[in-house]
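Many introductory courses stop at the sequence. We go one step further.
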Amino acid sequence: MPRPILATIHTEALRHNLARMRRAAGDSRVWGIVKANAYGHGIERVFDGLRAVDGFALLDLQEAQRVRALGWRGPILLLEGVFEARDLELCSRLNIWHAVHCDQQIDMLAMHKTHQPHRVFLKMNSGMNRLGFTPARLRAAWSRLDALPQVDEISLMTHFSDADGPRGIGHQMQVFAETTRDLPGERSLSNSAAALLHGDEPGVRADWIRPGIAIYGSSPDFPVHDIAHWDLRPTMTLASRIIGVQDLAAGESVGYGSSFTADVPLRIGVVACGYADGYPRHCTTGTPVLVEGVRTRMVGRVSMDMITVDLTPVPDAGFGSEVTLWGRGPGGAVLPIDEVAHAAGTVGYELMCAVAPRVPVVVGE
């Protein structure tokens, strides 16, 4: 039989989370962000759960082709725009909208021969300082685009650096509003954090919101708020089983480096999951896991193919018992991915994207 580790993608949770973000959007339209292979879930696996979006936003043309191949005829947006001139040919053929964040991309458009003008999203650097034109240069970029016969409609976008933190979005909202005040075109500003934490502030929702992590059942401001607070549900479960049991006497250790030593007699379950499966190696003793739906803790170091868990809260568990590394467990139990990520000193995004190719994946409700 195959090794007993499995990732499950929950279609109904995707629908629920999307509906939750629609409520946060108000009258705004919603991009479904499916970059990074739908945050590790798989574009083809999430498509049915996200059919109700107004458009899909992603990073590269291969992903865009996959979405079109699934039968999607609505808007698709390349969030980083094109990377070379020949990309524009495919944008023309597949009717793909694309961001413009630098002079080189405008140069490519100016040289592009097309019968169908392009819909572009001019990106402003309002303080994130990654991609986009500075406020001082945005209007010149807009004028260049507006003069090109290759360009049809120009929308405007920016990205918030601190929507989930104490600094907030006010400073970026102000500079964006001042710089774009009389420019025509639709606006897209808000990611998950901005839509949920600041959506009631004037102008934040704009014409489009761009929720990513919230759609996939992770809280954008954990640990301040968890997914229950935002009415979100896990869309990915990583589960395995106990493949061995050890009884430790007080003073005995387990795993590489003997990093955990039992101070009382302890029964330990060995689980078929390790860092080669995408489970974060930086997780340490105390990281939460569910055994048969009961919360317990990981002990010792994460190995390539195994972790060890404390069976004290589940004395009847043994060989074959189900272990939930994150997501939905038996009996309605839930272990949010954010809790595991927090224990590893990272974020839920990374865990979703890091599930290894060797882990089988199925789609369920």
